[in-house]
Amino acid sequence: MSASHTSVASFNQQLLQFLESSPTAYHATGSLLAILLDAGFERLYEGDAWQLQPGKRYVLTRNDSSLIAFVYGAGNLTEQGIRMVGAHTDSPCLKVKPRPELLRMGYAQLGVEVYGGALLAPWFDRDLSMAGKVSFRNRSGKLQHALINVKKPVVTIPSLAIHLDRGVNDNRSINAQRDIVPLWLQLPEGEDKAPAFRQQLLQQLQQEYPEVDAEEILDYEISLYDTQPPAIVGQREQFIASARLDNLLSCFIGLQALLQADGSQSTLLICTDHEEVGSASCCGAKGPLLQNFLERLLPENETRTRVIEQSMMISADNAHGIHPNFPDRHDENHGPLLNRGPVIKINANQRYASTSDGSALFRLLCQQVDVPVQNFVARTDMGCGSTIGPVIASEVGVRTLDVGVPTFAMHSIRELAGTQDGWYLYRVMGAFYAYSGSLTSQLLGEQR
């Protein structure tokens, strides 16, 4: 693959389109699914009987928010294993509560709950819209579900003026229950009841799906998001600014690499929901999604164990780039720079699943495609985040390596990455998917 500017630019433009079309984990999964189906992947449903065949490509979803895509290679699975890449579809955000309507001083507001470890300050003074999944009863009395996306700005969280909080720039604390309450609308004088939120969702549903005979919204999972579109920024256009780079960037990279797989090896992409809140759900990495798939692919226990032994998972999740204003927050020898290549994430206490043999293989792949590579190790006196890597390693038993693209402002409403790094990781992922021969022999070397 040639790393020409045209190729990198095209890759990034497709990334921006994917980010903008994916305001929630549901929409991200829908975007991934649509691309895979358009590329010829056959959709599987977990409630059906399967007859998986070598040479074919498959995709399945769970909860509409998690996805597995699988290229069933021609090679012997017990000899070659499966090359797996994992990422997650969810991002920290604000989610609308079940009974959100609030009325204060003639203003209708919406109660929200913080999802995941969101950086709250950047949510103020933004033009926010809402999107998500609604469940409704149609006029025939049947339960149906649909994704909606309002797209236009409909709520905002205005800051308190500095004149009323003179110390705000010195020591600001944000109370998630009191301070992060979006402003929805102002009632006409004399009215004293806020509109029903579910009725507004019903109107939105009917607008997006005029053919659907919806009568009542029964429940919903609605998230707020910033309407400012993703962009290439910087004097020399070296950065990507967007919401949900953590971790839709990795989902997109894994997708693009999988689409280039030639079918000689068996390759798999899994993108799970709920990583930001611990992955403990039916569609999270702690759930049985991947294990269920492998059991149906390989029903016999001994064969499945042998295949897992030959397999490897690369868990892709963004890494903390060293911030030029706060270099002291990094270990002095392990501060990744933007546009300097993907990052191997290492933690002695297994908050990341990386081991030296997996890291060595990744470095070898980077050398083969002429991609620079970096390390991230947290300061010894600071805590360390985690990923789906250790979860899948412990649940499935597959050797796992944690890598990612360096970013700034992780968990902010708008994050920043380098324009080169996604392309770099895509090239390495492509080499990983195409790697021929036994991964175990490479990982274990002469010890074998």
From TrEMBL:
Keywords of this entry: Aminopeptidase, Hydrolase, Metal-binding, Metalloprotease, Protease, Zinc
UniProt-listed GO biological process terms: proteolysis
Enzyme Commission numbers on file: 3.4.11.-
Cofactor(s), by name: Zn(2+)
Pfam families the UniProt entry points to: Peptidase_M18
InterPro entries the record matches: Peptidase_M18, Peptidase_M18_dom2
Recorded GO CC terms: cytoplasm
Molecular function as annotated in GO: aminopeptidase activity; metallopeptidase activity; zinc ion binding
Stated family: Belongs to the peptidase M18 family.
Name of this protein: M18 family aminopeptidase
Protein species of origin: Cellvibrio polysaccharolyticus
